[in-house]
Amino acid sequence: MIDTIRIAIQKSGRLSEDSLKLIKECGIRFDNGGGKLKTAATNFPAEILFLRDDDIPGYVEDGVAHLGIVGQNVSEETNKNVNTVHKLGFSKCRLSIGILREQNYEGVQDLDGKSIATTYPRLLGEYLKAHQVQANIHEISGSVEIAPSIGLADAVCDIVSSGSTLLSNGLKEVETIFRSEAVMIANKNLPAPQQALLDQLLFRIQSVQEAKNNKYILLNCPNESVDNIIKFLPGMRSPTVLPLAQAGWSSLHSVINENDFWENIEKIRQAGAEGILVIPIEKMIL
Ligand code: ATP
Ligand code: MG
User: Fold this and answer.
1) Is the dihedral of CA 116, 121, 125, 127 positive or negative?
2) Residue 173 neighbours by CB under 8 Å, 6+ apart
3) Which alpha helices (H) appear in the chain, and where do they start and end?
4) What is the number of the ligand 1 atom nearest to the C-alpha of 14?
5) Structurally, what CATH architecture does the domain formed by 214-280 represent?
6) Ligand 1 pocket check: which of 37, 159, 176, 183 to mutate, most ligand atoms within 8 Å of Cβ?
7) How do residues 89-116 score in pLDDT, each as one tens digit?
8) Could you give the CA distance from residue 6 to residue 227 in angstroms, rounded to a whole number?
9) Is residue 173 very low, low, confident or very high in pLDDT (cuts 50, 70, 90)?
10) Intervals of CATH 3.30.70.120 along the chain
11) CB burial of residue 1 (10 Å; 0-12, 13-18, 19+)
């Protein structure tokens, strides 16, 4: 039997689309039609398992799946014995405490003696302990944000991204207790063939992530401006400079970090660049 690596991802929810996209961007092809629970990749020795996100850390700990993609919030809350092998940069959110908007709030001590509804009793418990607050943790399994308005609890501790859900339930965010993004987790005792496949996968993920952070830039400039412009475009080793058909002009090609691009574009123009093109990169191997 060929050794394959089993990767667990969320079946349907906020992580699903980006998890599938990442695996596809790594060049791994599979058929995920028909609401299947398991599918085999056609061009890489991998199987994808579609599960509820809460179950993924446990399956990875047991070795039912070798790898999993979950939010750090779920990974930390479930507290399973797994390795976090890579941050994936999507599904960024935070775990926050919210209280009714009209209530006064001076600081975390105001939560003393209050009841807080949450699906994250472990993370909340640790936070309260660290801040020496005695509050009653009310564990519920969903719809946390309505708890204060129906009198079930004084406060909530829940996942927030824009804050609009809190707002529409008459709540305000008063403390952020944990920042999260999607991560890849792995079983702690991977057999050698699966470890080798994980290394291949991480190499591909890194090249996809590098590519996303960088752009290919082409521009034209008078020959005498080349040295000046190159200062802003160091490139991977150094930029490519090609002569234009028009005498005295060059075309300069380089790779630039997207953030540096917005910071430096004005200086590049002032240094004499024109006809600037910025092109996405699909894969980048350093
Ligand atoms: P499941 O049915 O698989 O248990 P779920 O309802 O528990 O799904 P989702 O709401 O799909 O979970 O969220 C999955 C993960 O996505 C969360 O654990 C969190 O890491 C992240 N997440 C949740 N809400 C947001 C948000 N508003 N913005 C970005 N990421 C989020
Ligand atoms: Mg869940």
Assistant:
1) negative
2) 96, 97, 98, 160, 163, 166
3) 16-25, 56-62, 72-78, 121-130, 164-168, 192-213, 226-230, 258-270
4) 11
5) 2-Layer Sandwich (3.30)
6) 159
7) 999 999 999 999 999 999 999 999 999 9
8) 51
9) very high
10) 214-280
11) exposed
Among 47, 86, 41, 42, which Cα is nearest to 64's? 47
8 Å CB contact between 272 and 221:
yes
For the segment(s) 93-180, the CATH number from 3.40.50.1820, 3.40.190.10, 1.10.340.30, 3.40.50.300 is: 3.40.190.10
State the amino acid at position 216 in one-letter form: Y
The answer to whether 90 touches 9, Cβ cutoff 8 Å, is no
| Complex prediction ipTM | 0.97
Nearest CA to ligand 1 atom 2: 52
Atom of ligand 1 nearest to the CA of 160: 27
Query: pTM of the full predicted structure?
Result: 0.91
Q: What's the token pair of residue 150?
A: 């129906």
Return the percentage of the chain with pLDDT > 70, whole number.
99
93 lines ligand 1 (CB under 6 A): yes
CATH superfamily assigned to domain 5-90+181-190: Periplasmic binding protein-like II (3.40.190.10)
Residue extent(s) of CATH 3.40.190.10 domains in the chain: 5-90+181-190, 93-180
Mean predicted confidence (pLDDT) in 168-194? 97
Q: Extract the tokens encoding 257.
A: 């970090």
